[in-house]
């Protein structure tokens, strides 16, 4: 298994403990939650059940009936002897309890519920039944470990992890499964005999993010550009409809969540909560909080405080590469051009997109950047900064790392197909930005001009403006 060493270690540690465990695993669709459990606990799962995906044409009653019948099938598959399917979740969990007691030989019993949120159909009383299963029976059995997972992160967070009712503080351990890093993407490609260069891997990350499922569509006999055309732009492209499925499968109100994502897509620096509320015409209340929190939990967006602002001015920024790429190039494609990407790899629109997309790669690898700067253990805040001015004194800084050791790394992020060149005009712009930033911070801070680029920096009379220089090699650090 590629990556996930920490998660595997923790799951095995919990498995080996002599106490009841209720473990919740969440993360965005296609990130590998089920695969993690299958690989970690191969041959050790006592009972497992994967929920049915909801369908629009179903009624609440028929949806509940389908889920109960399917649960019964899983019970039978694992040896439960029962004459008929349960008529309620209370009855279903009683059947599971009786079966687990019957086969109990003192060894660890591992129960795995995959896509648990889908079981909670309207008026099904599923949460109450699950509460009874765990509080009245499961939590008292030292040899029982229940693992639940789901892509509907808002449900996992609200109904389990942050539940204020009967399941309050009942989850014994939670794991948020995040996308692969660049280093893990490289390992994945190598394990699957796909010989992409690091430069191509960065570009693939700018399109697919670190989502293992998407990376699995790459064909080692094709170039990256050919692969992109194959999975996005051909008539039956594998990922042509994935964008809508992302929201439909993971959110109770997919259109509202999608609207937030598509609004954030329009501004590289994102928007404040009040701006989101105003622009979308939605109430700035609990529902918006749940949407934003679930998008953060799914790694679609990040929350940050712009430099020089207070906590009340928190901004939300879209950082999911797949959503950005889809909105930029796929969403509004008219017709089918199966060679679209190969024909446009050097087009101005693609070149401009790469610059912004590389910024997102860097924001998704802040830990690697801090490590390369030798400040992995220093407390920092990371943000972008834009100062708007009617004259020529405005400025935009791609990334600011404000450090507790009284240093600010003013990071310029430049995607380039060769060594980056600082010419006289750009040099003067950097000097101006540094002077402007100096007027906005305490005199105790030192400002370090820092370049993050793909290959390196060409030495000339202006290149000394950068005190530190990082390349994509640093982003690949483990």
Structure summary:
By secondary structure, this protein is an alpha/beta fold. The chain has three domains: 172 residues, P-loop containing nucleotide triphosphate hydrolases (Rossmann fold); 185 residues, Arc Repressor Mutant, subunit A (Orthogonal Bundle), CATH 1.10.10; 106 residues, Trna Endonuclease, Chain: A, domain 1 (3-Layer(aba) Sandwich), CATH 3.40.1350.
If you had to describe this structure to a student in words, what would you say it looks like?
Helices cover 43% and strands 15% of the residues. The protein has helices at 5-16, 33-40, 60-77, 89-102, 126-137, 153-161, 182-191, 198-208, 212-215, 224-233, 242-250, 254-265, 273-280, 286-297, 321-330, 340-344, 348-363, 366-372, 424-438, 472-475; strands at residues 21-26, 47-50, 109-114, 144-150, 173-176, 271-272, 301-304, 315-318, 380-387, 395-403, 407-414, 446-453, 468-470. The protein starts with a helix and ends with a helix. It has three domains: 5-176, P-loop containing nucleotide triphosphate hydrolases (Rossmann fold, 3-Layer(aba) Sandwich); 180-364, Winged helix-like DNA-binding domain superfamily/Winged helix DNA-binding domain (Arc Repressor Mutant, subunit A, Orthogonal Bundle), CATH 1.10.10.10; 370-475, Trna Endonuclease, Chain: A, domain 1. A five-stranded parallel sheet has the order 2-3-4-1-5, with helices on both faces. It has a five-stranded mixed sheet with strand order 9-10-11-12-13. The chain is α/β, with parallel strands linked by helices and 478 residues long.
């Amino acid at each position: 298994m590629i990556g996930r060493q920490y998660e595997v270690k923790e799951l095995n540690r919990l498995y080996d403990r002599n106490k009841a465990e209720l473990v919740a695993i969440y993360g965005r669709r296609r990130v590998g939650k089920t695969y993690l459990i299958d690989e970690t606990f191969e041959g050790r799962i006592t009972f497992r059940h994967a929920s049915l995906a909801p369908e629009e044409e179903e009624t609440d009653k028929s949806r509940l009936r389908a889920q109960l019948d399917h649960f019964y099938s899983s019970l039978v598959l694992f040896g439960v002897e029962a004459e008929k399917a349960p008529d309620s979740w209370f009855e279903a969990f009683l059947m599971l309890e009786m079966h687990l007691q019957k086969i109990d030989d003192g060894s660890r019993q591992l129960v795995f519920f995959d896509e648990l949120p889908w079981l909670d159909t309207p008026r099904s009383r599923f949460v109450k039944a699950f509460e009874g299963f765990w509080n009245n029976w499961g939590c008292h059995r030292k040899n029982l470990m229940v693992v639940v997972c789901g892509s509907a992160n808002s449900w996992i967070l609200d109904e389990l992890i942050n539940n204020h009712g009967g399941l309050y503080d009942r989850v014994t351990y939670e794991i948020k499964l995040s996308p692969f890093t660049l280093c893990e993407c490289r390992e994945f490609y190598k394990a699957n005999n796909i010989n992409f260069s690091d430069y191509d891997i960065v570009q693939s990350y700018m399109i697919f993010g670190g989502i293992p499922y998407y990376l699995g569509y790459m064909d080692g006999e094709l170039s990256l550009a050919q692969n992109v055309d194959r999975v996005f732009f051909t008539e039956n492209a594998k990922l042509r409809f994935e964008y809508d499925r992302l929201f439909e499968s993971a959110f109770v109100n997919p259109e509202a969540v999608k609207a937030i994502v598509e609004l954030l897509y329009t501004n590289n620096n994102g928007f404040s909560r009040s701006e989101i509320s105003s622009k979308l015409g939605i109430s700035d209340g609990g529902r918006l909080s749940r949407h934003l929190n679930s998008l953060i939990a799914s790694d679609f967006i990040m929350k940050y405080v712009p430099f020089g602002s207070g906590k009340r001015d928190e901004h939300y920024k879209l950082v999911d590469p797949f959503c950005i790429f889809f909105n930029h190039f796929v969403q509004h494609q008219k017709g089918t051009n199966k060679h679209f990407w190969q024909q446009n790899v050097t087009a101005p629109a693609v070149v401009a997109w790469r610059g912004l997309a590389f910024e997102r790669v860097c924001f998704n690898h802040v830990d690697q950047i801090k490590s390369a700067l030798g400040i992995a253990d220093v407390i920092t805040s990371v943000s972008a900064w834009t100062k708007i001015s009617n004259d020529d004194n405005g400025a935009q800084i791609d990334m600011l790392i404000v450090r507790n050791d009284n240093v600010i790394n003013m990071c310029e992020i430049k995607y380039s197909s060769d060594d980056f060149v600082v010419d006289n005009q750009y040099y003067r712009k950097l000097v101006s930005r540094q002077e402007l930033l100096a007027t906005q911070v305490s005199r105790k801070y030192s400002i370090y001009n820092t370049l993050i680029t793909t290959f390196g920096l060409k030495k000339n009379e202006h290149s000394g403006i950068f005190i530190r220089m990082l390349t994509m090699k640093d982003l690949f650090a483990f």
